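Forum > Structural Biology > Help requests

Title: Can anyone predict the 3D structure of Nuclear transport factor 2 family protein?

Hi all, first post here. I have the sequence for Nuclear transport factor 2 family protein but no way to get a structure on my laptop. I'd be grateful if someone could post the structure tokens.
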Amino acid sequence: MSDPVSAFRDAVHSGDVDAAVALFAPDAVFHSPVVHKPYEGREALRVILRAVVTVFEDFRYTGAYADGDDGGVLVFTARVGDRALEGVDILRAVDGVLTELTVMVRPYSAATALRERMAALLT
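Reply #1:
Sure, ran it for you. Structure tokens for Nuclear transport factor 2 family protein below:
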């Protein structure tokens, strides 16, 4: 994996949201698995990641795929309540700085549980 992707994985595994967010450009973009409009900026990303570490239980990365210096994909598993889910973090980077994070999860029932829990935390 490229350095920023590995650093992101390590920060998330250790629960260090601030370290994870620091790897992103100030104008980074986050694409949610359950919200149509992208979130922009580090502070939006910080709020979302803090909520995610509260909502996801038994979170762990299970695989990683490199895309050279342009980013990579991290595969993960977690639970939201009684719903097991699988997902991927798609990370894009420019010159060693993360610029974009897209998250996809499955199955639909877990994505729905995720949307409900995240909405309760973010409203």
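DSSP finds four helices and six strands in the chain. Strands lie at 24-31, 39-40, 57-66, 71-80, 83-94, 97-106.
Shout if anything looks off.
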